[in-house]
């Protein structure tokens, strides 16, 4: 018990002494700060001590060089538009074919024709009813068409030939 009391007392003294000692020492950046205006003579003194290196007087004449090549901007490249349009047309055709197949499967089921395929009701995003499924697929087709239309608008704003998007 006495040992714990002595240890606790010593720790208390040490904890009290640390902030007092820190308060007496100087702190970085708190001294009086004076602004120095450097002159050419001051720079020469530093250079003679080897603390600064001056390569020479500034050159008044700037050599005229070839302009730097402009960075590649994909929205100004007709090939980029052709590639994007081809990708979007393929996506649109695939979605339209999926929608047409779904409609045909529903038509075959309602007319009681012998079917070779069926409607995949296990698909995660097809609607509960056949009509809801058609709406979902139609929405996908519309989204693909809207994306293609946006690309055509962007091409028109950037003065890209209309035939570029059609692969001509």
Helices and strands in order:
Layout: H1 2-24, H2 40-48, H3 78-110, H4 130-157, H5 162-165
Q: Would you kindly provide a brief summary of this structure?
A:
By secondary structure, the chain is mostly helical. It contains five helices and no strands.
Mean pLDDT: 76
Number of helices: 5
Tell me the fraction of residues in β-strands, as a range. under 5%
Shape: flat
User: Tally of extended strands?
Assistant: 0
Series of H and E elements: HHHHH
How does this model look, in words?
The chain contains 5 helices and no strands. Helix 3 packs antiparallel against helix 4. The model has no long low-confidence stretch (mean pLDDT 76).
Relevant terms:
flat; 58% helix; single chain; mainly alpha; 168 residues; 5 helices
């Amino acid at each position: 018990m006495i040992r714990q009391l002595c240890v606790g007392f010593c720790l208390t003294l040490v904890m009290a002494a640390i902030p007092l000692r820190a308060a007496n020492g100087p702190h970085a950046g708190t001294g009086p700060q004076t602004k120095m205006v450097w002159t050419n003579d001051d720079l020469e003194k530093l250079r003679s001590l080897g603390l600064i290196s001056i390569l020479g007087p500034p050159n008044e004449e700037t050599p005229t060089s070839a302009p730097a090549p402009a960075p590649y901007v994909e929205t100004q490249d007709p090939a980029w538009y052709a590639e994007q349009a081809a990708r979007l047309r393929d996506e649109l055709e695939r979605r339209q074919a999926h929608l047409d197949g779904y409609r045909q499967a529903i038509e075959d089921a309602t007319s009681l024709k012998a079917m070779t395929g069926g409607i995949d009701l296990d698909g995660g995003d097809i609607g509960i009813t056949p009509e809801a499924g058609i709406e979902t697929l139609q929405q996908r087709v519309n989204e693909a068409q809207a994306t293609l239309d946006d690309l055509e608008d962007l091409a028109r704003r950037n003065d890209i030939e209309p035939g570029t998007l059609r692969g001509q």
